Amino acid sequence: MDDILAKISEAVYEGEEEEVVRLVSQALEQGTDPQTIIQEGGVPALSRLGEDFNNEEVFLPELMLGGDCMKALVGLVSPHLGSDQGAYKGKVVIGTAQGDLHDIGKSLVATQLSIHGYEVIDLGTDVPTNVFLDRAEEEGADIIAVSSLLTTAQYYMGDLIGRLNSEGRRNRFRVVVGGGPVGPDYAREVGADGYARTAHLAVKMLDQVMQNEPGTALVIEA
Amino acid sequence: MDKHMKLLRSLDKARGGARVTEKEWDQKILPRTLKEVAKEHGLLGSCDPENPVNSDPQLADAFFKAGWDAAVRLGFFCPDTESVIRVEEDELARELERVPSNFPLGQGPEQVRVPARRPSDGVQPIYCSPLSIQMDEELYVPLVQGILSSRLVDMQEGPSIDTVMGSPLLAHTPYETFGGIYEAHLRKEAQWRAGRVGIGNSLVASSSTHFGFLAAFNLFEQPQLCLCLNPASLKVNYTTFHKAFVTNELGGYVRSESPTMVGGYTGGAETTAIGSIATDLLQFPITGAALPGSPSYEILYAGNCGRKGLWAQSIATQAVTRNTSMPLMKTINQVSGPFTEMFFLETIAGMTAASASGQAFTISPRSAGGSVKNHLTPLECWYNAAVFKGAAGMSLEDANTVCKEVLPRFEGQLFDPPKGRSFRELYDIRALTPDAEYLEMYLKMREYAEGLGIPMPGDGVFC
Ligand code: B12
To answer: What ipTM was predicted for this assembly?
Structure first.
């Protein structure tokens, strides 16, 4: 059994999604505990990927492929988890604000979050405010994460929260923000639930934000 | 018409190509092809962080060959059509014969010609300033007047503004249309005040999308430079084509920039350099850009004055400038801010490597990574210009020695750099004079650069 977990881990690390699907199905058939598959198959591979990325031994594409494999893995095991054991820590809808094409930072955040147990729906770049809101509603998301590297697109973060407030829906979603020009002061000014300076800190920040009710406090990781 | 036809042909190719999703391109096709090419040419593992400026011409030529192969195998991905624009090898060779080796920008006595340069070339490169750093709108005119008051600055691009008469300049909306017009008027006012009417421009800085461009590019007498920023290396989008058609018709020149990142989609330092070379080779054949520029950043700190950034960018520059006759631009990207010693040290490393490697043109500074509002003053611009021009003619060995000397003094801070101070904190804005302490630091750091063997041309204001 340990052997299959090691193989799953290797396949996630290598970004071989088909192999991950095959091995995870096999493990489930053999009666391996679904939480163990996540914790001992997926998680170690992703930690290794994260470390190797910081040491410049693997690069963004490998990191993203690993994140996709984890998504596939969790997708397969989640129907087998007990009802009290959610596979994910929360569901995030992420994108860059309208007019902003800078995608690297946003993709790193999305990947880090999916590596660390969040279900992530990546809406890509140049996402209009209404699309964030509609997709978050459709997906039943817990969190809306908006990235902006442009001061001129950053305004849309305020618009988004303003709209949630005016529609009486502020308690539906936690809104977290980040990207070059965005800082703690701006996050406070627009009434966000969280701000983090890096993708790595975003995970830490979100873990805390998930403990709070939407719109009640601001968590800063700077 | 010739230029329009080229763009039309590229658009046709983008429409006709097989569908490839962006994810497939980013995660598989691009990184795997670059790695394959690097392996075939025996270049994996050739990055030498101990010697950040390569001085082996054969290695630079081997990178050129690899970049050429990558260009032919990959082409440019167009996200709007989700397909690839390919360029056949003979077409690439033909096109590169036709790239102009120099071209004019601006009018009258202010006009400059952008020259193709080679490594260690004594010909002076062109310095354009500043990058699109956000400023409060009321600071635009005094800041630009200050920057342009030194003749070290040959052209203007930024800064940018994020409000127009107090209203937010919202990205991708007609606020940008007016933003473009408004910026054009501020620019003309500042240039007039600085006595620089006719100076060349790279346009339009305050607009992130095509709205502002369409409104403002034609408010300047041509030839001017059109600023096209593509989503990434080996990609081109409809916005660039849109801008390029208008620019051609008006008689301007296209500068098309598409960055690579060490650690990003292009992988490690060697494959990133190959990706940059391929991108620079394909710009003219696909978009007709007279001034291509694919800078390389390091993803972990979003700058390129550290060892791998310097290495990747300088070898890619040498590869192209040794083997083609096109003028090449790339940006040097500091992460520390004004009134920090680190900023000057980053500048010495980045600008010396760039100039000695044969870059024809640059736009800077990127003080405080460009992302802290109002963190920009004239002194950083002049210092960048002086090093860039002063290092012209320097051997690659000497440039490497300079980088090795300064790197240990700042590289430990690249991940958490000091952001420095703002224009308001460092300048008397009415009199346009810097704080005495900052001026002293600037003059001391000029002396330091001179001591490293960089003959720093005077700024004409303080020295
Ligand atoms: C690469 C780059 C580009 C590339 C983008 C490529 C791409 N596909 O992403 C190109 C060339 C296309 C580009 C274009 C432009 N750019 Co640009 N670009 C940059 C650059 C050099 C690096 C950005 C980057 O990728 N960093 C690396 C990543 C890993 O870092 P990051 O994005 O900051 O993300 C980290 C954190 O911020 C955080 N984070 C990010 N998002 C989120 C979200 C959440 C929720 C959280 C919690 C955290 C978080 O985590 C990430 C990882 O640690 C920056 C300068 C800089 N040094 O930052 C300028 C910069 C962002 N660009 C700038 C500008 C002005 C532009 C243009 C408008 C230029 C112009 N005049 O046309 C256009 C806009 C195009 C558009 N419509 O978006 C300015 C913005 C200034 C401002 N305050 O508004 C900057 C700061 C440069 C400058 N002033 O000198 N650019």
So the answer is: 0.92
Which domain covers residue B222, as residue numbers?
115-451
Select from A98, A101, A151 the Cβ nearest to the Cβ of B373: A151
What pLDDT band is residue A116 in, cutting at 50, 70 and 90?
confident
Interface contact A141, partner B, CB < 8 A? no
Look at residue B208 in the predicted model and tell me its pLDDT: 72
Per-residue pLDDT, averaged over B224-248, amounts to 94
Which among B162, B231, B300 is the nearest to A101, CB-wise? B231
**Dihedral, B59, B61, B63, B64 alpha carbons, nearest 10:** 170
Q: Count of CB atoms within 10 A of residue A193's CB? A: 27
Q: Which residues of A touch B27 (CB under 8 A)?
A: 61, 64-65
Selecting from 3.30.1330.30, 3.40.50.300, 3.40.50.720, 3.40.50.280, what CATH number does the domain A90-221 have?
3.40.50.280
Residues whose CB falls within 8 Å of the CB of residue B212, separated by 6 or more in sequence, listed in order: B176, B177, B179, B180, B183, B204, B206
Q: Tell me which chain B residue has its CA closest to the CA of residue A128.
A: B172
Q: How far is A56 from chain B (nearest CA, A)?
A: 6
The pLDDT value recorded for residue B129 is 98
The chain A residue lying nearest B375, using CA atoms, is A181
CATH superfamily, domain A2-80, is: Methionine synthase domain (1.10.1240.10)
The answer to whether position B77 is within a domain reads no
pLDDT band at B213; cut points 50, 70, 90: confident
Site to probe by mutation for ligand 1, drawn from A92, A102, A155, A209 as the one with most ligand atoms within 8 Å of Cβ, is A102
Q: Residues B87, B280: contact at Cβ < 8 Å? A: no
Alpha-helical runs (H) found in B194-237: 210-216
The CA B243 to ligand 1 mean position distance, Å, reads 21
CA distance A124 to B283: 25
